[in-house]
Amino acid sequence: MVQIKTPEQIAKMREAGLVVAAIHAATREAAVPGATTKDLDEVARKVIADHGAKSNFLGYGGFPATICTSVNEVVVHGIPSDDVVLKDGDIISVDCGAIVDGWHGDAAYTAFVGSGHAPELIELSRVTEESMWAGIAAMRNGNRLVDISKAIESYIRRQPRPAAGEHSLGKFGIIEDYGGHGIGTEMHMDPHLLNYVSRKRGKGPKLVPGLCLAIEPMVSLGTPRTEVLEDDWTVITTDGTWSSHWEHSVALTEEGPLVLTAPDGGRAKLAELGVTAAPDPLA
């Protein structure tokens, strides 16, 4: 069942979203050569505690950390560890969430560690992030869920294939086994949101005010296929190509989309795309 929120409930989700944005800012600053992914997890724990929020990742299905730290060929669900030391030239996707008064926020970003990154890695992150925004821009009253999937896939498919380099097979792969989801009183709720169009899934529900979604494309420089490591969490590409993951939690209102986990509510980026963002309920 798809959960529809009231404006007051969306305001609470905005509070949780701003905690997630604060985690992003702090972990970005900490993602430097020589830091461990466990260091980043400790940074996130402190931010959550300082805001009086709760983690929705820690203990979820037995997950042992506050954030997911996915380095290079790891697509998603990487477990923070003292053994994973960030190196110059790495990329890392940080996925995290927070709960405020029972309402959830969830978002992810990809960061570059150090400097000197190959052009195909820079393009990989850019394409993944921009496809997320294309999906957010398609979250309009009267559209269907499939319109978001179509916008994400169409953006990625339109991009020129990157030149094959050390980390690339010269193509983009839209990860097949993972996608976005509803969010609200739980972190993962109906509906499931594919990052590509599937004829088997139909058009999906109509997008209406009060619907909240986590929109999260994951893209690799090669295969769309993944496998899970023996820890039962860490997901990697089957061909070892590197990947990027971007995500925002978004509420649809009568006035348009509100990006709950973006500091400005998504206003600046949506304006570039010709979409008016909803007013921030906490402004």
Automatic annotation (TrEMBL):
Protein's UniProt keywords contain Protease: yes
Q: Which cofactor does it need?
A: Co(2+); Zn(2+); Mn(2+); Fe(2+)
Q: Which UniProt keywords apply?
A: Aminopeptidase, Hydrolase, Metal-binding, Protease
Q: Where are the transmembrane segments?
A: none
Q: Which residues bind a divalent metal cation 2?
A: 106, 181, 216, 247
Q: By its UniProt entry, which Gene3D superfamilies does this protein fall under?
A: Creatinase/methionine aminopeptidase superfamily
What does the entry list as the binding residues for substrate?
77, 188
Provide the residue positions that the database annotates as binding a divalent metal cation 1: 95, 106, 247
BP GO terms, sorted? proteolysis
Q: How is the cofactor bound?
A: Binds 2 divalent metal cations per subunit. Has a high-affinity and a low affinity metal-binding site. The true nature of the physiological cofactor is under debate. The enzyme is active with cobalt, zinc, manganese or divalent iron ions. Most likely, methionine aminopeptidases function as mononuclear Fe(2+)-metalloproteases under physiological conditions, and the catalytically relevant metal-binding site has been assigned to the histidine-containing high-affinity site.
Q: What is its EC number?
A: 3.4.11.18
* UniProt protein name: Methionine aminopeptidase
Origin species: Streptomyces lavendofoliae
What gene name does this entry carry?
Answer: map
